[in-house]
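[audit] Reproducing an earlier prediction to check determinism. Same input, same settings, fresh worker. If the tokens differ from the archived copy the diff job will pick it up downstream; this log only records the rerun itself.
[audit] input (305 residues):
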Amino acid sequence: MAKIWEYYRGYVRARHYTDLITRSCFRSIRIEGMEHIPTEGAVMLAPNHCATLMDPMLQLLLRPNKDPIAFGARSDIFKKPRVAKILRWLRIVPLARERNGLAEVAKNFEVFDEIIDCLDHDVPFCMYAEGTHHPERGMLPVKKGIFRIAKMASEQLGMPIYIVPIGTNYEDFFRGQTRVRMRVGEPLEIGAEFARRADLPEAEVYRELCEDLRERVISLIGEPLERRQGSLWLRIPAALLSLPLFVVCAVGALPIWLPYLIIMHGMKDKAWAHTVRFALHMILPLFVPFHIGYERLLNFYRDLF
């Protein structure tokens, strides 16, 4: 089995395509604070998690030179061998949660060794420290797993291990062609953080670190992104004049927006909205320009009324 840090044939080409598709799903993607990602030592990225598989696609943009990032995901999505093989090729490893049972959680230790090996080969590892996703602005309580892995890596590798907080702020969690902002915060060097708390019980150390990381990410998310409306007297004529263009875009984008509506109607978890849109853009690229125009005009009409 190939290591998640190894060079994969076709990975760079695939990254060019997936990055392009990621950008096609939003009106704009702004990234701030890239200078905070350490260039020495090992790096673990710790973003908030609110849009299922769309979040990792956005985090890949933090490596614009197409260098890899490895990810952790909940173990239950690896049950089917074919799916597991694809996820493995995408550098995603399974992480069991307590709700999966002790037998599954015990398998995490093998995965921890692989994560540490990944960090040792200068490939960042992205871990969603909340342990689940939720389509809301903010962050759920942080689980201590990310700090346990970082501490193990620090002890085994003898190098600085940095946990980098990232705040991902979606203008809208369900609409397409809206804006996204990612802010990268100052990193926590795990060895120094544990040294500063050497006189505290271990449970208290983890509690403080979890609270600190959560507060940092929430501050990076910031306030909701405001929509720019413009003058109502200009928007009404623009809406009327754009109607023929909207009809053309709607017809051209039909192979994307109709399956999207059908798929999302049958989904209980609406946090998959951006991910479903991304998948349809991936497999139907010829219709993407029409879909971009369709969704931007649709948003324009929605905001108008």
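[audit] rerun output stored. Observation attached for the diff report: The chain has a mean pLDDT of 92.
[audit] end
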